[in-house]
Please model this.
Amino acid sequence: MTTNDGLPMPQRLGAILTIALGITMAVLDGTIANVALPSIATDLNTSAGASIWIVNGYQLVITMTLLSLSSLGDIVGYRRIYKIGLALFSIMSLFCALSDSLLTLTIARILQGFGAAALMSVNTALIRLIYPRARLGRGLAINALVVAISTAAGPTVAAAILAVTSWQWLFAINVPLGIAAFIMAMKYLPQNEIKQKQRFDGLSALLNAITFGLFFIALTSFSHNVNPWVVAIELFVTLVIGSYFVRHQLKNPLPLLPVDLLRIPIFSLSLCTSICSFCAQMLAMVSIPFYFQRTLGLSETETGLLLTPWPLATMVLAPISGRLVERIHAGLLGSAGMVLFSAGLFALSQLTPNSGYITITIWMILCGAGFGLFQSPNNLTIISSAPKHRSGGASGMLGTARLVGQTTGTAIVALLFNMFTENGTHYSLVVASLFAIIAAVVSGLRWKTK
Model:
C-alpha cells in the first residue's frame, strides 16, 4: 500500500525497478525488430514490404489503445493494468519466438502490442504513487532515462543479439525478463490511493482507436507516395471522426481523451514540446543508420557502436536533470536541452565521408546530452500539472505524445528519403534540428505559465 506521500524504502526501489524492466521491454520491442526484418523476411519466405507489418502492427495497436488502457487504469487500478500487460506481453513474446509464418508472427506482435500499451499507459501514473512529491522529478527522470535509452539503443541491442544467435531470441529474451518483472510487480507495486466511481466508455475507446489508427495509416500512406487523393481522403475521414470524438469527450466529466487537461496551459505546452522532441529524435535515429551503412560502408555492429554514445549521454544527463528541476524551472531546462539537441543534430547533418569517428561521437554525445537534459523536466511538468486522480489520463497523454511524435518522425524520414534519394539523411537531420528548435521555443513559453 502507499503512504500519503510515496512508498518507503526499500519497496520504492523494488517498485521503480519493476517499472523500468517492464517499460524497457515494451519500448525496446518497438525498434529492436527493425534490424532483423531482412533476416525474418528471408526465414519466413515473405517479401520485405509484407514484413514491415511485424513492426507497424505492434506500433499501430499501441497507438490505438494507449489512452483507453490509461483510462481503465483510473477505474480498476494502475497496478492491475500493469500486471495484465506484463503477463500478456511475456506470453506473446514466446509466441513471437515460436512463430513459423508471417501470419502467426504478425498476430503475435499485434497481441504483444496490447501488452506493451498496458505497460506504457500507466507507468508514469504508478511513479506518481511510488515517489514522494518532493522527489517526483527523480522518479520521472529514471523513467525518462529508460524510455530514451530503450528507444535509441534498439539497433545496438538487436545487432548484439543477432551477432551471436537467431532473430527468434529478440523476442524469447523477454520471457524470463517478463516473469521476473511480474513477480516483482506482485511484491512491490502500490495500489491506487483513489478509486474512480465511473464506467468504462466503450464508445470513446472505439472512436479513439479509429481516430489514431486512421492517422497512423494516413501518415504511412503519405510517406510512401500513395496517390495524394487517397491520402487526402484518409486525412479527411480522420478529421471527421476525430472531431466527433473530441466533441464527445467535451461532454464527458472524466473523458478518455483528457481534453479538459489540455485547458491547463502548461500541460498542453509540455505535450507539444514532447511531440516535437520525439519527432526530432526519430528523424535522426531512423535516418542515421542509412548514412553509416550506405555512405560510410559500416557494418550493423559498427553502426550500433557509433550510435551508442547517444544513449550513454542521455543516461548521464537524465538523472542530473531530474535533480536540477528541483531548483531550476522545467521550461528553462527543457529549452536548454533542446538547443543542445538541435545543435548536435545540425552538426550531424554536416558530416562528410571524411568525418572521423571522434567527430561523430562528439555530436552523438551532444544529442544525447541535450535530450537527457530536456526529457525528465518535461515529463515532470506533464504529470504534476494534472490532478492526482487524473494521473492515468496524464500518463496516457504522455505516452500518446511520444508515439505521435515518433510516428510522425518516421513518416517524414520515409518521405524525405523518397524525395532526396542521395541526401535523405542530410535533409532528415536538418528537419530534425528545426523540430528541436520549435521544441525549445515552446518549452521556453512555459517559464511563467501555470
Summary: The longest helix spans residues 265-295. The CA atoms of residues 63 and 165 lie 31 Å apart. The chain has a mean pLDDT of 83. The two ends are 32 Å apart (CA to CA).
